[in-house]
Amino acid sequence: MSRPQDPPRGFFPFGNPFKILSPKNSYLSPKLLSLLNSFEVDLAARIKKLVPSDKKDILTFSWMKQALESLCETHKSIKTLITDLELPVSAWEDKWIDVYLDVSVKLLDLCNAFSSELTRLNQGHLLLQFALHNLEGNCPKNLSKARSSLDSWRQHIIARNQRIENCRAILSSLVGSLALPKVKNSAKGKVLMRALYGVKVKTLYISGVFAAAFSGSSQNLLYLPVSDEIPWAQAFMEMQNSINPEIKNIFLSGGLTVLKELEAVDVSVKDLYPGIEDGSVSIALEPVKKLVTELSEGLDLVSKEVDIFFKIVLSGRDALLGNLRSSGAAAAPEKALGKNFIGQTGVRRP
Asked: Are 293 and 109 in contact (CB under 8 A)?
């Protein structure tokens, strides 16, 4: 599988968010500087925690759960910052609202895609359970049934999910949204835009990792250059430079899947085939049962975190729309935003 060429670090296709807060462009009060600094320091700390001490932890369900928890905390933090800025929705420019609603609806679409894939993978658990049940008695007439179930499970795992296939287009669109809207005569607005930039970069990168893992394609893995002048830039680049090469190496290994727990089950399943042929399979069953149980539990944990993240994004979107309507500011944005205002995704709980 070919490796996409990483763009040079100094390349800024999305604009430099530091410039919009440079002293020559605006004056920030000590309070605003403090709010921004606190937000960005916390963002850097959360990103650092996503750099695994052991590369073997990358693309484990434990790491994926941690990444989603971190995203949830970051999205909660931006909601807190908006409150602390005391910037009412009525003071938001239409273009800010447009960007926010457009990004949020795409994040909901990604959540729905990830949820559908996790559900699909979990459905394969039934095939594994049926196979293990037929192998327990070591009855010759059930061995063929067990082998058929295991074959079906492996085919089920490598089958394509159209929702996951669609993630690439959504990610590409979100990369374009990293371009910052111009902010005029609003110090609070500039703080908000820069903070939102950090949230979008982190969210987009992690979404790309998930899309790559679920699709089996490194083309969904993103490399996002950011300005060295941003406080969280070093942590973010360290995360990318640590995780991206390892994921690409996993893809090159040629396994059935890049998800660690899923691959472990596949290896153990392949070890069962010789025993099925000679009738000695019961010896190897217990380790497989343990791995299958861990796989199911891991899928459930990640699914729950996707659900939580979905609800956080949806609640933020609903709050904005509610505030627009209550403030009487909804008429113009609704006309301008069209589908983005009312939602163009089939919103549901994952």
From this structure: no
